[in-house]
Amino acid sequence: xxxxxxxxxxxxxxxxxxxxxxxxxxxxxxxxxxxxxWVLVSSPIGATVQGYFYSVxxxxxxxxxxxxxNEASINDGHSNTSLDLVDKNPPSxxxxxxTISTEVPSDSKTEQTDTTLxxxxxxxxxxxxxxxxxxxxxxxxxxxxxxxxxxxxxxxxxxNSKTTTSxxxxxxxxxxxxxxxxxxxxxxSINPSSAVSTAPNETSISSGDSTSxxxxxxxxxxxxxxxxxxxxxxxxxIHDPLGPLYTNNSCPVLTQMQNCQGNGRPxxxxxxWRWKPFQCDLPRFDPKKFLxxxxxxxxAFIGDSVARNQMESxxxxxxxxxxxxxxxxxxxxxxxxxxxxxxxxRIWSSWLVKLTSEPFDxxxxxxxxxxxxxxxxxxxxxxxxxxxxxxxxxxxxxKQSVYILNNEIVGGQxxxxxxxxxxxxxxxxxxxxxxxxxxxxIATIPNYKGLTIVRSYSPDHYEGGAWNTGGSCTGKAKPxxxxxxxxxxxxxxxxxxQVTGFNRAVERATNGSKLRLMDITEAFQYRHxxxxxxxxxxxxxxxxxxxxxxxxxxxxxxxxxxxGPVDTWNELVFEIIxxxxxxxxxx
Length: 587
Description:
Elements (H helix, E strand, L loop, with lengths): L15 H27 L4 H8 L15 E2 L14 E2 L10 E4 L26 E4 L24 E4 L19 E4 L15 E2 L2 E2 L8 E3 L20 E5 L33 E5 L9 H7 L4 E6 L1 H14 L6 E2 L6 E5 L4 E7 L4 E4 L12 E7 L1 H6 L5 E5 L8 E5 L2 E6 L13 H18 L6 E5 L33 H20 L5 E5 L2 H4 L41 H17 L5
Parallel strand pairs: 12-15, 12-18, 17-19, 18-21, 21-22
Antiparallel strand pairs: 1-2, 3-4, 5-6, 7-8, 9-10, 10-11, 13-14, 14-15, 16-17, 19-20
Helix pairs in contact: 4-9, 6-7
């Protein structure tokens, strides 16, 4: 059947008219989408969407609810940024966290009135950032948790911020937070009457309590968390109501001379102070976490009797969660924690360098000879087997010995028979050389890739004389307060020599191992209360008071009571190890 076109009917033309309509419709749709997008982004309704794609716009308002009773306000940035924690309204709800939201409620009291703020927050990756503050505000103020601004107790917060085109400066990665934390010399929680003062580019929160002992001024760092590498060794001693990590009755390996409570010391508040760095918090020692962190590894304490003091403190802490197996011998103490295959080791070495007693040149037999340019050979045999080494030395340089360098007698301590000869090296210089020698040997020995922690010179507190000339630390019940410290010249010089030797060894390191200085000297000069004093034995007839002539009884003002300040050394060791194994740099 053939189809024909009827006369007078229009001819079928399928292209010109339908194609033009398609073009018109596509153009209209494109115009509509462009217009709708402009309306969505420009109007307040689209503020949240705009925040997703373009961060926070310059015309945006932010709601910063710190809690139901605390309001945070950001003023015009021409002068400064203030963070006010003020109890303005009665609490209606107990909030555990607070959120910075990019949504704009109608009753928002926080405005951005200028894009040239001195302190701004860039919410570049998300529409909300949780803020936490561990401060306690009395009365109606509530606690706020999970903070990216971790304000520890007795802290002063400085917000040193950048100038950008957006409102705030909290980066979601927390790597570029420009927050400076400086601790005041006071302790505990925020007093409701404490002033919240504001200076340009900073917000300070001061505390009214004063039960602390400050040490040196803080060095400001960009972040307040331990992992950021804050200075662990500048801070203050704060009273700790939690008390010690163990008791003298819960540790079976405690040397009796350091068992101060067991030896009858009448006071025990010296156990209740903990070290608080200005810029971060030194975590309380968690023995389970430590053993897990050290799983399959060996920690060795090497050195003198102060090294033994620290090793026993470590064992006392770990003993609270697991009883180790004693696998030691006469040459090496070894305690094995089976649950994590962790070994704690101690090796005795008075000077850390080669020691002989045979006659040498004009030095007779029977007198200790220190070969200052040679490390202790017995120690070096074991070093590659250790993962972490903690070193202690210095105090034996006060004992009689002969100093040999380059196969020549160059000095001596309490021994120098020929006064016509000039002594080239005294005990202080000999100590510095010994530190350099041993640390250089560790840093260059093949097959050792471990972590070496050099605990700095431990201060003694003999007053009125030395350890063998009537020095005393009797009656010291609490740490020294700021301004009370009398500088110990000998301690400072020994510390200086040790640091110099340490730095020289670092420069010569070749084996890829790590050297870290645990610089406790200055902080522990304030702890004259932490020594056994006359309470060195359980003898009920021991003399603990001065005689009629004022002479003090024999006492120990060098070693540390356990529990006591020495436990802080191991909290520092834990933190240094954690930083090395989990990331972050040690100061």
